[in-house]
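Shipment paperwork, digital attachment
Item: protein structure file
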Amino acid sequence: MTNQIEDPAVRAFVDALNAGDRTAFRAALTPDATMSDDGTDRDLAEWTEKEIFSSQGHLEVETAQDEGRRFVANYSNSTWGAMRTRWAFTVRDGKVARFETGQA
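Attachment content:
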């Protein structure tokens, strides 16, 4: 259901995540991008490697708001299995500057 994501920066983020494409994922982010998981700021590079790329992370968007800058999705990876998650994005200059995720 990524067609619910109208914001091009967020769509690039989701598409790269689902493709397991580290290069495209990094290109979707500002150089100073930050993130949090369940309300705690995390090291973006460490978190994405562990929670997305080395564990085959995948997002299936359920519902989206604010042109896709906020959504609820089923997220799965080989470490934790499947869970319902919420995502919120701050976009700056056409790239994701911050994302916040956690259980929904």
